[in-house]
Design brief:
The complex is a heterodimer.
Chain A (H helix, E strand, L loop, with lengths): L8 H7 L3 H40 L22 H9 L2 H32 L5 H11 L4 H14 L6 H5 L6 H12 L3 H9 L4 H9 L4 H17 L2 H6 L8 H11 L4 H33 L4
Helix pairs in contact in A: 2-14, 3-14, 4-8, 4-11, 9-10, 11-14, 13-14
Chain B lengths: L1 H36 L1 E4 L2 E4 L3 H7 L2 H33 L5 H13 L2 H11 L6 H8 L19 H26 L3 H9 L4 H12 L1 H16 L3 H7 L12 H10 L4 H32 L2
Antiparallel strand pairs in B: 1-2
Helix pairs in contact in B: 1-13, 2-13, 3-7, 3-10, 4-7, 5-11, 7-10, 10-13, 12-13
Classes of the chains: A mainly alpha, B mainly alpha.
Chain lengths: 300, 298
């Protein structure tokens, strides 16, 4: 530490300062870090406590009839009663199955069509490419809310209302996904694609074997976004689904929550059953999810 | 020539599915909304009525109230969340212990569906025993707010409650984007400032804030669009009418109610077009602000 090394300018600079100054600098740094941790931890508690309160209340047998004046974060009378009622009242397994089917199908379709078209825009050469790409960018400006009424009428004409297809078909591809894939694929060197072409590979083979394997981060980010959009959507199911057997988890929870308002314990048990699996999944996938959010700038 | 077309053919096959789906589910319904907004249903026929529905909207108190409501809720949300999340991001960016743990926790409400969160808060805001008033009571607050039961404008009414809810949900996302923005600022800028003898506040004001300009504009832009299209949480809390006393009704809820409760698809379409025009205008204003500054210095 005493020798001045160019590779470590900072420790060298610190070592050359008087010892007392260094110590007080370190103490100040530590105090600052502790201050930051305290503030940030208080905020973090504010994020967790509502979920904790949900759990405590849903696990309390008496929550349906009498709630404590001071909120409790641990149930006074722990019981699974509310969960038993919730499971008998709502076909939650069915809802989960529906949500899984809708989310996986739309997400796989979204990834496939977005990346296929994105590949054509990134590496293809064909008349009308610019015009088509501009058309695609224009559709990015169209919010779902402006087209939902004719979309609903269209589904009604096709007799698709109250089917899974109504929840899947309109979301199989997207302007944002295609745009993101195109942007990502333009960073792949042309030489790589050309080399495969010289070897006689078809464009589809190049797409599946050469380009897609290099698009991992973009595909992961899109998968997270699409899955969150579909899983959390209520507006579209509200329009096209009225058969209870086709409810998704989020939609079923919304309908149940709006109808049985007075049974606090049961309602919060429903909420817990809808939220907890997602939280567990999030804790496992948090690295991908947070990286995806930071890459695309979009949330679910 | 034929060879040229055959070479292009594969690319057309690649773009066809996306554009067919776009045509059916994006372009056609959008144009159809515009068409419906100029027609009226007479028996089973559609009859052209010009701007009639737009005139009806302009004199419709419920629509105008929903419009103002949406704008007020959006403005309150953005004025609270932008400074809060920036402060939080600056703190986390300087934190050396467990920064990732805190990122995960702050993003938690965003990952759970808006509906589930709204359900929890419909109980948390309960005036007598809810989590929030219970905590206020424990802290010794005497007159407890009514929150969602109070439709009056103010800091303790239904609008304040749903704004707190939205800030609580969105904080982690806004914070993450500010952290990305902060990390993209080149360290040399800070070194230069230190060499020039700038203090921490000066550095923050003259280096950090101007460098975050793109992040600000992106967040304000997407935040405005999100606020304009707010639906699920407010529908969950107050139904399509935005109970109590329509204090929570937004434009999208108005569109929903007009179309699916009053069966007036034409009026709803006119409202949807109005919604689209407003969103587009806000987007363009934001873009202009962005481009102006970017090109002003060149």
């Amino acid at each position: 530490m005493d020798t001045v090394s160019t590779a470590q300018p900072q420790p060298a600079a610190r070592a050359s300062t008087p010892h007392g100054f260094l110590a007080s600098y370190r103490a100040a740094q530590r105090a600052r870090q502790i201050g930051i941790v305290v503030i940030v931890a208080v905020g973090a508690l504010a994020m967790i406590i509502p979920f904790e309160w949900m759990l405590a209340t849903s696990l309390s047998r008496s929550a349906n009839t009498a709630m404590p004046r001071i909120p409790r974060l641990w149930p006074a009378d722990p019981s699974l009663f509310n969960y038993r009622v919730a499971i008998t009242n709502l076909p939650l397994w069915r809802f989960y199955l529906n949500s899984l089917v809708v989310t996986t199908t739309t997400t796989l379709g979204y990834l496939f069509f977005s990346s296929l078209t994105g590949y054509a825009f990134a590496k293809g050469r064909f008349p009308g490419k610019t015009l088509l790409f501009i058309t695609l960018l224009t559709t990015l400006m169209i919010p779902f809310e402006i087209r939902m009424i004719p979309l609903y009428l269209f589904m009604r004409t096709l007799h698709l209302n109250d089917t899974m297809a109504a929840l899947i078909l309109p979301f199989l591809t997207g302007g944002f996904g295609t745009f993101l894939m195109r942007q990502y694929m333009t960073t792949i060197p042309d030489e790589l694609v050309d080399a495969a072409r010289v070897d006689g590979a078809s464009e589809f083979t190049i797409y599946t074997r050469v380009v897609l394997p290099l698009c991992g981060p973009a595909l992961a980010a899109l998968a997270v976004l699409s899955a969150l959009w579909r899983w959390n959507d209520v507006l579209w199911p509200l329009l096209v689904i009225s058969n209870r057997n086709l409810y998704t988890v989020t939609f079923g929870l919304a309908i149940a929550g709006r109808s049985q308002g007075i049974f606090t314990g049961v309602a919060l048990a429903n909420a817990a059953l809808a939220i907890l699996p997602i939280i567990v999944l999030y804790l496992f996938l948090q690295r991908f999810i947070i990286r995806g959010i930071m890459l695309t700038g979009l949330k679910g | 020539m034929i060879r040229q077309i055959r070479k292009s053919l594969v690319w057309y096959i690649f773009v066809t599915p996306t554009f067919v789906l776009f045509g059916l589910f994006v372009v056609y319904p959008t144009l159809e909304t515009f068409r419906l907004s100029f027609f009226r249903e007479v028996a089973t026929r559609q009859e052209f009525v010009g701007a009639l529905h737009y005139l009806r909207l302009l004199t419709n108190q419920i629509f105008l109230a929903a419009l103002i409501n949406t704008a007020v809720l959006g403005a309150a949300f953005l004025t609270l969340i932008i400074p809060l999340s920036l402060i939080l991001a600056s703190l986390l960016n300087n934190l050396r212990v467990w920064p990732n743990l805190f990122k995960i926790i702050y993003f938690l409400p965003q990952i759970t569906s808006t509906v589930a969160v709204a359900l929890i808060f419909s109980y948390a805001f309960q005036p007598n025993w809810g989590l929030i008033n219970g905590a206020l009571h424990a802290l010794g607050v005497e007159t407890l707010p009514l929150w969602l039961a109070d439709p009056r404008p103010g800091l303790t009414g239904s609008r304040a409650a749903v704004t707190l809810l939205a800030v609580w949900v969105g904080l982690g996302y806004y914070m993450l984007l500010f952290i990305s923005g902060l990390q993209a600022i080149p360290a040399e800028l800070y070194d230069a400032a230190v060499v020039d003898g700038a203090g921490p506040l000066q550095t923050w004001w003259y280096i950090t804030l101007p460098s975050l300009r793109p992040t600000f504009i992106f967040l304000i832009l997407t935040g405005t669009i999100d606020a304009m299209s707010r639906f699920s949480d407010l529908w969950m809390l107050g139904g399509p009418g935005g109970t109590p006393a329509r204090s929570l009704q937004t434009i999208v809820m108005f569109i929903y109610q007009a179309a699916f409760e009053n069966n007036d698809f034409n009026l709803a379409s006119a409202a949807a077009v109005a919604f689209f025009v407003i969103v587009l205008a806000l987007t363009l204003i934001n873009f202009r602000a962005f481009l102006q500054q970017e090109f002003a210095g060149r």
